[in-house]
Amino acid sequence: MGTIALRLVIPWLFGDAMDDLRGLESADSGDGKSSAAARAGRLVAINAAIIAGSALVGAVLRTASRLHILGTSRRVVHDLREDLFAKLTRLAPSYFLRTNTGQIMSRAVNDMNNVQGLTGPVFMYIAETALLFAIGLGVMLTIDPAVTLWAVAPFPFFIWRARSLAKVIQEGSRAAQDSLGTVSDKVAESLAGQLVIKTLGLEGPDFERFAVHAAEYRRLNLEVTTARARLMPLMSWLAALAIMLALVAAAPRIHAGTLTPGEFVSLIFYLQMLAAPVATLGFVISSLERGEAALVRIFEVVHAQEGLPERPEHLRPDSMQGELEVRNLSVWREPAPTADGAPAPAPRRVLCDVSFKVPAGTTLGIVGHTGSGKSTLVAVLARQLEVDEGRVFVDGRDITHLSPIWLRRHIGLVPQDPFLFSATLSENVALGVCDATPERIQTAVKIARLDVDLPQLPAGLDTVVGERGVNLSGGQRQRAALARAVLLEPKILILDDTLSAVDRHTCDAILSALEPVMAGRTTLVVAHRISTVAHCDQVLLLEEGRVVERGTHRQLLAHGGRYAQLFEAQAREPDRIEPADETDSADRVTAPSGQEATP
Amino acid sequence: MSRPAPIAPPPEATGLAATAPAASFGGAMVYDPETKSAGAFEPQLLRRLWSYVRPYRRHVVLSLALLIGTQGAGLLQFFLLRHAIDVHLVPAELQGFMWVLAALLAVSLVEYAGRRRQVWLLDLAGQNALLDLRRDLFRHLQRLSSTFYDRTPIGKLVGRVTSDIEALQEMFSSGVVTILGDFVLIVALVFFLLVLDAELALVSFVIIPCLLVATTWTRKHVRKAYQIMTSRRSRMNAFLHEHVTGMALVQAFGREAAAQDQYGAINREMRDAQVDAVTWESLLSAVTDMLSAFTTALILWYGGRLIVGDVTSGAPPELTLGTLFLFVFWMQRFFQPLTDLSHKYTVMQSAMTAAERIFKLMDVRDFVPERVDARAPSEARGALQFDGVEFAYAGGDKVLHGVSFAVRPGEKVAVVGATGSGKSTLLKLLTRLYDVQGGAIRLDGQDVRDYPVAELRRRVGVVLQDVFLFEGTVLDNLRLGHPEIPDDVAIAAANRLGLDRIVARFARGYHEPVAERGKNFSSGERQLISFARALAVAPPVLVLDEATSNVDTETEELLQSALKELIRGRTALIIAHRLSTIRDCDRILVLAGGRLVEQGRHDQLLALGGRYRELYDREYRKQAATAEG
What we know:
The complex is a heterodimer. Chain A is an alpha/beta fold. Chain A has helices at 2-26, 31-90, 93-98, 101-143, 145-152, 155-192, 194-199, 203-256, 261-302, 374-381, 404-410, 425-429, 438-447, 474-488, 504-518, 530-533, 553-559, 562-572; strands at 324-333, 348-358, 363-367, 389-394, 397-398, 411-414, 492-496, 522-527, 538-543, 546-551. In chain A, the strands form 2 sheets. A 6-stranded mixed β-sheet of chain A has the order 6-7-8-3-9-10, sandwiched between helices. Chain B is elongated and about 125 Å long. Chain B has 3 domains: 30-197 and 343-368, ABC transporter transmembrane region fold, CATH 1.20.1560; 198-318, ABC transporter transmembrane region fold (Up-down Bundle); 384-628, Rossmann fold (3-Layer(aba) Sandwich). Helix content of chain B is 61%, strand content 10%. Classes of the chains: A alpha/beta, B alpha/beta.
């Protein structure tokens, strides 16, 4: 407030000083003139000094107010970000399956930026501009209402125009940014696949794809430029137009002597001052709309249903035996939202009336084709997905009455496509156990047969892996995830097609190394190859979400049903004879929590 | 240029991360992406940049002319206002006032139209030039050899095509041309102000050195604060991205609180960096505004004294009120370009650094060398001969030690061996992704290095494990890279392999669009498409790297029969992983440690009891037994 007032003082003082000087010129010549001159000179000097002084104070106040407002906005957004992240850690896994990473990132990054704009600069500009207009117009109206009204007449139109152009610019810039991301992805893809592209002679089509993206990026940029080229000169034209209108209105009044030239110059000053923020105002109004929409989207996440929250009434028994029972379990899956906004198909039943029992300390094999529901079953048992219908018991207790954190602590799930954080390998292995000693980590690594790979890594266990580190092969990642689960010493270990990218030789070695570790623990082995589960105490065959056969390997073979057929068919298949560590990642299931890829 | 020099192992090459520069074919250029440069305005660099702008030079020149014109129009407006004040308003004389108004309207419209066109033209020229540069750079990257990619991180190269070219874009929209325009504006202003009133002009300029010092100093801090903020933001985004992707894991291992703590620390750092940036930025704008107001006060005070002095001495007033007004407004015009100067200099500097990096990459001539007189023999029978082939990857040990064998036209040969035995290197040498370092590979009696590269790759069809599907229809993908193949030939080839059964599930059949990275096909189906692709081209020699991935039983059977169909009647070199494929071949080559240790038929080799027997016993005797039993 003070800041604005101080800024507005300057034109008034300047006009006043000019009038002092003008009065001097028109004063009668004679004795009085020199004393009048001296007085005018003094007045002008005083005005100049006040201008300088108010500029100084204004600068200090302005910095202080900006720091306060903008600083506060950063702090508010800091808190909001913290809350959003905390919320993300509590959301149900199904939320992450339904919503892709890009969408969540867009909430956490782009929308958050928009909200930051809303709480900070937008708020500041609105406050500043509103005050500027209110006080400025007030002062101008006291100087000369008619001239002022004439001069500000075009302002509303220009503000409206600035707003629409600003919207085009902001939205266009966002689109251009996304487009640059596409260009970047395309280049990365082409360079990563350059061996393939070269051998197959695909340079031409590959270049065409790139050229299309690059041209699209240029087009979007030019769209933004067009709007920008219109907006920028518009504002100086507004100032010129307002001054012209003021001139037209002021001329007869100055002629009549009701308006002094000094007052008129003050008005011109004010008009310049008011015209300057109009372009910004356009952006501000547009940001306001965006900020609001962004806030709505962020709150959608904040208010999304939390998955399996901890409740005080949840049971946390001292220990777990590892007995598992599933009774008439059914699970539905909501289909992923379609991009083109088509009506979503009805939820699909992915598990249908599944029942089985695993005594503590025994092993259960689960086989079935891709899409048969194996991974969904595992996700429910690991308390990642909700039980829709039916019941699941651990040690005879319904799992919905047990603390999810306690359950997860005792169930080690090794997914098919494990995720590694950008941290050292040993940090990744020790993920669930904060106080793991190096010796224990070493042992776990040895059991998972990861130790043989360590010499290849630049810093052994201290090698940074993950997105920003060394890229491990599929088999190495699977073994790291296994080591992670082994270290946790879970009562129930679930291998969700864990060793699919590990060669048979290593696989056998791992399984035999696991045997002593798993003595007394319940183990679930999920696979689509029967040979992997042949040694299990009990085997289930899943087809389209139903248990179609159940028994030991021998019993099922003797039964001669679907299981035996599948075994025959797989036996005819020639097996691979060498490590498949380089297996193309495209055919691995990619959802970390075990979503089945639907064919 | 036709033979690569042996590549000396770089001193700091360390197994996995051998990214150190190595001598290239030309021997002159070494591409080191890490080179830092001060962003010097080297004439040679500017010349090369200009070669891209040249086609659009008329836009640039016109834009510059318009810029100067509009700057003039802007100044003229205030000059007209001064006239209005001195001639019409102060003496209250309205004669001819309408003309002044009309002139003002005309001039302001000219400024509006001129600036609009100027900004647009400049950006158009920039966008066009940079699109050309981007396309050239991409084509250049496509031509670079595999050896180059072995030692250059892809991330750096992507940065050249995206962020470095962005830096150049920034230079176009707020760089050279506008600096030139600003310069003209400043010179003109100084001149006119001096002409109007030399004494007052000199006084008005007093503040300018302070302004330059203050803005340069604050901007340096603003820039630094923004740099810190940008790096912290990307750290925050990376953390977020990783944790959103791995949230199931965070939850499964009960790491929620720990992750929140980590994020909290990053978030706090981000907030501090932001507050820092805001502080410096507010300071910058406050200082500029304050100094501008000081100048106004100074002009008023000194100008007032001059007027008072004139009046007291009775001399005719040299300085009018209108001129005083003009001084204040023109000086305000003066401030903008000066405060922007240090910013624009930074933009130019980073653009020059970017340009240097881009052109340095363009100078890498690490192409697959092709002889000027390269010609392929007219007859393509498909006879292969490997003759004492030696090879080592840059900075690595030898992977092939004098491998020699010959393949008769129409013969099917399987290559087996453990990982690292050199099987896939043979494939890469045959198609000249790399060149042999000793010995020779001959196709139909001629060294592959004497073939035109494109013709060689047409005669040697390759099916890789990685199937590369582009967006487009299935049919487009079948004749990828060979648009000359007619629809019916491509479809007939695909039908022979049984692909018709797979596309039957789509409403549009072969015209079904392929989703991003072929997501609407299983890995086995993608393999089948790549088989069909090779069959449509019908090369005399086929090199095949058999996929190791698991596919379901039905697809497996389809693939096996498709493979038989694909290699019928042509020479085939198969890096085999499946027992049935191996047994169906005319001959098996066993590689171990980069040497050809055994060759012969399956049963011969088994009877021999050597390396093949060892492989067989270890890897798949069990399966062989179940398959037979």
